[in-house]
Amino acid sequence: MTDMTNPTTRKSRVALTDPLTYKTWLYLFIGLPFGVLWFALLVAFYATSVALVVVWVGLPLLVLTHLFSRGIGHVERGLLNGLLDAGIPAPRRLAQLTPKTAFSTVMRDGFGWRNLGWSAMRLLLGPIGFVLAVVSFVVPLSLIAAPISFLFDQNSDLGGWENLFWLGPIVGIPLLFLMPIVVRGTGELIGRLGRLMLGPTADELADELDERTERVEARLRLDQELHDSIGHVLTMTVVQAGAGVHVFDSDPEFARTALSTIEEQGREALDELDRIIALVRSDDLERLEVPGYEAIPSLVDRTLRAGIDLQASIAEANVPPVVGRAAYRIVQESITNAVKHGGSGRMSIEVAATDKSIEIAVENALRESSGRPREGRGIPNMADRTAQLGGTLSAGPTEAGTFRVKATLPTPVGATS
Fold first, then answer.
1. String of b and e for 58-74 (b: at least 16 CB within 10 Å)?
2. φ and ψ at 404, to 5 degrees?
3. Among 268, 289, 310, where does a domain finish?
4. Which pLDDT score is estimated for 4?
5. Which of 248, 273, 289 is at the close of a domain?
6. Are residues 101 and 17 in the same domain?
7. What angle do CA 77, 81, 83 make, to 5 degrees?
8. Exposed e or buried b for every residue in 136-164, given b needs 16+ CB within 10 A?
9. pLDDT value of position 99
10. Is the entire prediction scored with pTM above 0.70?
């Protein structure tokens, strides 16, 4: 009696009943015609292309042949994934081809060359797989059915070998369980080879990861810029509109100034949106420009014109652009938070510069019921910008009942007060 608790027996039983076994058998069965077909086509096309290189049509034909080899690779990868569950990821796409770069781009495509090697290997493995696929089913079933054939042909002179027919099931039944394991094992081996030859290489995966990381970082940067720039304009617009409404009758000159400032900032916001949308459509987010350190005084002036009670001290400094952009956004977002969550008290901004760092301190009063400003995107954005430069940032209420943002941006600068 067969011991079904034995791990080998259980594996045989699973392999015999698992649909993947029969898909693997199908892959091995069609391996011979596919292997011969692909290799014959590629050899013929490559040989013709090389022979015609002396003529101008040879190079375009070579490019088309390599693209055809790449297409065969996609078909083979689909067969491996569909029939063997190999899980091979798609290779990197080719860069956009132009008449000047088509030959060099295509000829440097490693996926096409790897598929040429895969097709040669398929030519060798195809017959082996085909024979295994046939033997794995025909031999066990033939041995099991041998006694039946003997019963229908007992008049044949077998010279005393007729008793061997009754040994057929003894050998055939174990083979019926063993051969599916061999088929599955062969399929797993082919799948591993396929992952090596038809999938992306380690360098290609690393390059793709770098590209995805750059795209994610660019989009995060876009998200930060939209939040900080447009959010600031909208906040200041709401504050000025509210102030203008309250003093429209008593101080029409201030209301007129507020409306003028709202119009100016609205136009700037629309221009900023148009510019960002154009960069997004062109997928060129690296050209996203941000005001720098030199724009901080203008930011302070606009805030004063909006009627905010503000005291500012901005040191003159020559800083690298990346530090200047971060300093501008930190001051801008601090003003936005102060206007949204602060009380009627004065806001203070101090930007100091040394030969090693930029020190930013923004402090404002808090409404009695506000406590700490509601957690949003502003403070995390400021913290991200600071961390990217290796600096530090703290933000929170003080014992004096104010809210204080303090940031240190390390940089070699030449500063004069």
1. eeebbbebbbbbbebbe
2. -130, 130
3. 289
4. 44
5. 289
6. yes
7. 115
8. bbeebeebbebeeebeeeeeeeeeeeeee
9. 75
10. no
Q: Which two tokens stand for residue 381?
A: 């954005």
Q: Which DSSP category does 392 fall into?
A: E
- Reading the block at residue 363, the tokens are 């402090």
CA distance 203 to 200: 8
Q: What is the CATH number of the domain that holds 367?
A: 3.30.565.10
Tokens of 79: 């067969």
Amino acid at 45: F
Q: Are residues 241 and 386 both part of a single domain?
A: no
Structure confidence at residue 389 (pLDDT): 86
Which two structure tokens, joined as six digits, stand for 25?
A: 């058998």
- In the chain, the amino acid numbered 127 is P
Task: Give which of 224, 232, 227 is closest to 335, Cα–Cα.
Answer: 232
Strands 316-318 and 414-416: antiparallel
For the chain (length 417 residues), average pLDDT per consecutive 10?
A: 46 72 91 88 86 78 85 90 90 76 79 86 87 87 75 54 66 85 90 88 72 62 66 68 66 71 72 67 58 87 78 88 87 82 74 89 74 64 85 87 89 51
Total of domains in the chain: 3
